[in-house]
UniProtKB/TrEMBL annotation, chain A:
This is RBR-type E3 ubiquitin transferase. It comes from the Eukaryota. GO terms for molecular function: ubiquitin protein ligase activity; zinc ion binding. Residues 437-479 form a coiled coil. Keywords: Coiled coil, Metal-binding, Nucleus, Repeat, Transferase, Ubl conjugation pathway, Zinc, Zinc-finger. Belongs to the RBR family. Ariadne subfamily. The lineage of its organism: Eukaryota, Metazoa, Ecdysozoa, Arthropoda, Hexapoda. It comes from Phaedon cochleariae (Mustard beetle). One of its GO terms (cellular component) is nucleus. It catalyses: [E2 ubiquitin-conjugating enzyme]-S-ubiquitinyl-L-cysteine + [acceptor protein]-L-lysine = [E2 ubiquitin-conjugating enzyme]-L-cysteine + [acceptor protein]-N(6)-ubiquitinyl-L-lysine. SUPFAM superfamilies: RING/U-box. GO terms for biological process: protein ubiquitination. Its EC number is 2.3.2.31.
From TrEMBL, chain B:
This is UBC core domain-containing protein. GO terms for biological process: protein ubiquitination. The active site is at 87 (glycyl thioester intermediate). Keywords: ATP-binding, Nucleotide-binding, Transferase, Ubl conjugation pathway. PROSITE patterns: UBC_1, UBC_2. GO terms for cellular component: UBC13-MMS2 complex. Residues 3-149 form the UBC core domain. SUPFAM superfamilies: UBC-like (SSF54495). Belongs to the ubiquitin-conjugating enzyme family.
Amino acid sequence: MEDTMTSSQGGESDMDCSDNEYYDEYYYTLNDDIDIEQIDPRKIDPEYFEFNCLFEEQVDRLLNETVETLSNMHQISPSLAKVLLHSHQWNIQEVTRKFKENPTQTLIASRIKPPSPPISLTFSRYINCPVCVTSQSFDKFYSLSCAHMFCKDCWTMHFEVQINQGISTSIACMARECKVLAPEDFVLKHLHRPNMREKYQQFSFQDYVKSHPELKFCPGPNCSIVVHSQEPKAKRTTCSQCKTIFCFRCGCDYHAPTECQVIKKWLTKCADDSETANYISAHTKDCPKCHICIEKNGGCNHMQCYNCKHDFCWMCLGDWKSHGSEYYECSRYRENPNIAHESVHAQAREALKKYLHYYERWENHSKSLKLEEQTLEKLRSRINQKVMSGLGTWIDWQYLFTAANLLAKCRYTLQYTYPYAYYMDGGSRKELFEYQQAQLEAEIENLSWKIERAETTDRGDLENQMDIAEKRRTTLLKDFLDV
Amino acid sequence: MAALPRRIIKETQRLMQEPVPGISAVPDDSNARYFHVIVTGPEDSPFEGGLFKLELFLPEDYPMSAPKVRFITKIYHPNIDRLGRICLDILKDKWSPALQIRTVLLSIQALLSAPNPDDPLANDVAELWKVNESEAIRNAREWTRRYAMDN
């Protein structure tokens, strides 16, 4: 799939400046012209997204810079600054504002200080540790800001047990009902085993990235890249290392124009077994004429009622005689206007019918995407043969790959328009959406047809078709992608 | 098995010397980390008059991890399920190494006095407890009589 969505989008490749003075002048004037028009890429491309793929060390540096700034600003230790930032989604302005307003309350809310000042009463040389009930000299004891004293060995054990459960930034004091958190320096002071220290740092790093709205782990298998964007929206992100494409906000497969919560609902619904059970129980339809119950037992959609001999389409329940002339009449889902008066059973059947309408189309485009990958493979070998037998060069045929990539991109968006439409309320907006969806679908099928017959298709014709399909796609996204 | 930590020895000694009223906890002869527990049903509760057997086990990293406790006697209670598992915050995320066997058992006894149907473990019991408390209490009394009163 194409990866043109990086920050370099919109910028032309560097032109070679020739030493010809006239050309130089021309080049600069041209550049000035562009400056005047200065097109905002956000306006032309609804999917425009600026982001960087970072390695772990780069993320560490980024986080540490914020920690240092806060630490210097308020004269607090970097460890405490980390706790404060972690509890405020790394929003340094927010922390500073709250800190200026009420420093004590901020420290209490971030679980750095206890709600009421601690009463420290032990000054004897020996203390009994309440956890291991062993009496030891005072200097073996440590406490957090809450002054709950425990011996150092118990702290170590406490931290190790917590870390083994995957807990790091939220390890609290050992005292009963005490919520004060153990900051990083305190934990590390008590961890001696190298593998424990490493585990602790690894888990905290994960916590920090997860609490930072501008950072996202790449969901690719075994990929350690963290994506950084200052505009944390549900946009298409491509990992520079493993090439996984995902939504920056939810980390799932990219899903425009559908929203994060909606696609989650849809995927859960598709995976839900109850839908299958529903499918079986509702695998019947009533004859649209005499209303007798009919079970479909063959592949053909042309149905004839055994009772009244009425011919109808299983898909849309329309009269078969008038069917087939209008292709898209069957792709648009029509709600039954009298559904409120029907029986519960009929309503369930209706709900399932609606779901299946969208599901079938969603599934179908997903399959087509896979099939088109095979087409691309075949195309590759055919072009290889052509180049080998002297019919043009690799560069001459590159446009076909561009076309295939564009086709995949368009079909992908088309696939994700179906869950969007499923959850849409009826009305003029839905009509407009389904109109644009049908247009996009038609252009995509045209493009697919032309790519499959690439050798006989005129290059200009194909490029024209690419342009049309992509325009349909961006128009739909501009009108309906709401991020 | 490694030597028993001082903490467990101390706790066991104190449980023997100053037992908690209404609670008995005796370590098993062969395993000092396994306790046979009997809790008497609190007064003015539907469990009054019952003797409830429980088992308590101190895991390897006790007291850094909570003890594992389970009812052996059948009990009709919204926070205790069919298998005797108990829904109690201090046995889970609210555990603190400063808590002890004694405090855990006291909390369990308190749970018998004050069932919490809003945080249920046994859903059917909790549901009845919410919609028809008197019937739920009748059931709890009946179960106490049937399962917690013989011998």
